Write the structure tokens for this entry.
Amino acid sequence: MVFVADTSAILSGKDISGLEAYTTPSVLNEIKIGRRSRLLGYMLDANLRIQSPSAQAIDTVRKKIDEMGENASEVDVEVLALALDLGATLLADDYSMQNLASALSISFKPISQKGIKKIRNYRYRCSGCGRFVKSGGECPFCGSPVKRFRL
Ligand SMILES: [Zn+2]
């Protein structure tokens, strides 16, 4: 089974390494913006394939969206179009994406329910002086053990 992951699917951090999963260059660009770029390493680990949809599929998706009076970003349009091109199952949590997928006869699967491997954010704080530090081990200020906690 082939899957197409939208931005929310990738940001969920779910382990998709066992899947034949694709996404579009526009999703990649969206994720590159800001602090989420560390997810790119995760995406590469997951063997995510990057492919652009055909102009024809984009056209089909746009027409359907207009017909339904829905709002969708360019990125959404491309993701849906790629799923059409590949006959893939869409991995998306977004309700409107799922809605559009049904309208286009694209099968979809929500990703936030089971087997989630979250990308966790940790911070480190010294147990002695209470300063926030960059990494675990000993505090560079006072030498006390540093504790890690999740945000
Ligand atoms: Zn300290």
Summary: The chain has two domains: 2-109, 120-151. The chain has a mean pLDDT of 83.
